[in-house]
Specification:
The protein is mainly α. The protein is built from 15 helices and no strands. 30% of the residues are buried.
């Protein structure tokens, strides 16, 4: 009964039902024998496996997949035939029907991504941020994302929209910090000569994004509310941000450039150590999405190395692939036993705040 009441209270907080309706539904459901499976204990007993708490909740069935395909095809067709300003009304109409009324999760994700892409194209037409200097255009370009995505979240409560709004807000903070340092130095090209400082500031903002994801994650350690969904998307963004900023900071002096993919083969020890650290973090917080996102970023980087004509495809690249692949297989196949060992090694005050193992 207590579990059923908490579910109805959560539905009322999310605006799915009114609190009065929740109060009337509780005795109605209890009379008809509706029950909720008992929750697992906070810390699983020895030898007892804990169920997976990271199942994505934005795919609820093939009905959602079918509707999402229709949304994507329709928006792509509209994008190709109509002006750019005709797309937002279509996104709003579809969101009112599919998200606000029918509460379809996967279409909500696709519509939030569509809004993000539309905002990117709009800001690119209005501003010119693609310059070597960090100027006002870049700040104004980034500022449009948290505003539009924040309004979309306030209306439709899509976790991805809030996650994208948070990430773009941190990107806005990063541009403001860079402009402040640039202004204090009196040199518009200050970061061209101080790449290590640029990488350091980027790492601080990446850590801020990771801390924000942890804030939402630890607020729902059993992962039953939308806080966990928001944390899922934030972790997907935090992992590549941490990977690239860390690798750039530790190897910025090798080629005189930052985020230099063509020189990835010379960074094999740094890359392997960074990926291993990200995997350990993902293991502690029980986020395979965090690990997967970091690995996908690494895969994109290595693929870019292969495409660079000046890149040397040598044993270092293959060594990186073998070592990282071995780490993935070891951690992936033994995720839960390894995680229980890690939790035992942590102080109880920390372990009790993490998802149970």
């Amino acid at each position: 009964m207590t579990e059923l009441r908490s579910i109805l209270d959560e539905a009322a907080r999310q605006g799915l039902i009114s609190s009065e309706a929740g109060g009337r539904l509780l005795p109605f459901l209890i009379e008809r024998g509706v029950a909720v499976a008992a929750a697992q204990p906070a810390i699983a007993a020895e030898g007892q496996a804990w169920s997976d708490t990271e199942t994505p909740r934005f795919v609820r069935g093939f009905h959602d997949v079918l509707i999402t395909i229709g949304v994507i095809v329709a928006l792509v067709g509209l994008w190709g035939l109509a002006p750019l300003y005709a797309v937002p009304p279509a996104i709003i109409v579809l969101s009112e029907i599919l998200v606000r009324r029918q509460r379809l999760a996967l279409p909500a994700v696709s519509l939030a991504i569509a809004l993000f892409c539309w905002t990117f194209l709009l800001m690119s037409r209005v501003f010119t941020p693609w310059t070597s200097q960090i100027g006002a255009d870049l700040t104004q370009f980034v500022a449009g994302f948290p505003i539009l995505l924040g309004v979309y979240y306030a209306r439709y409560r899509v976790p991805l929209a809030l996650a994208l709004a948070i990430m773009s807000t941190l990107a806005l903070v990063l541009t403001l910090l860079l402009r402040l340092v640039q202004w204090l130095s009196g040199n518009p090209a200050f970061f061209v000569d101080h790449l290590a400082l640029l990488a350091g500031i980027s790492l601080v903002c990446a850590l801020g994004l990771f801390a924000t994801a942890l804030y939402f994650d630890l607020g729902d350690r059993l992962r039953r509310t939308t806080r966990s969904d928001i944390a899922f998307w934030l972790h997907l963004g935090a992992a590549p941000a941490l990977l690239y900023s860390t690798v750039s900071l530790l190897s910025v002096g090798e080629s005189g450039r930052i985020f230099d993919l063509a020189n990835m083969s010379a960074r094999t020890p740094v890359v392997v150590a960074t990926v291993a650290a990200l995997m350990l973090i993902g293991l502690v917080i029980d986020r395979r999405a965090f690990v997967t996102s970091g690995l996908l970023s690494l895969g994109v980087a290595i693929f870019s190395v292969f495409r660079h004509g000046s890149a040397t495809v040598d044993t270092y690249i293959y060594t990186t692939l073998i070592v990282v692949g071995a780490i993935v297989l070891i951690i992936g196949t033994g995720w839960m036993p390894l995680r229980r060992q890690v939790l035992r090694a942590l102080p109880p005050a920390i372990a009790n705040r993490l998802p149970p193992g």
